[in-house]
Design goal:
By secondary structure, this protein is an alpha+beta fold. About 40% of the residues lie in helices and about 25% in strands.
Amino acid sequence: MGSKEPELHFVFMNFDPEYERLRADRSRQGAHELDLYLSNKHDNLLATVLQPGTYKKRFSWVIVDGFAVEITDDQAETLRSVQGVRVVEKNQEIR
């Protein structure tokens, strides 16, 4: 059985043509639009799937369509089943 305590997970999304279009624009305005697009996309996904106040998004990555979020293992399982989500992995320390 998984942990009931929130832990850092990384979520990567499937191919998104809008992300690819925005990423191709190397201008300052294009970079701003990409940041805004991804942040909103990831925030909306979490708000739609998980209960408010039960997770904490840390950041969205621009280099890949993904984000880091503190969630429980049960919430990670929920995210794995969402259309558009490619991978959900728990952060692991390497010693």
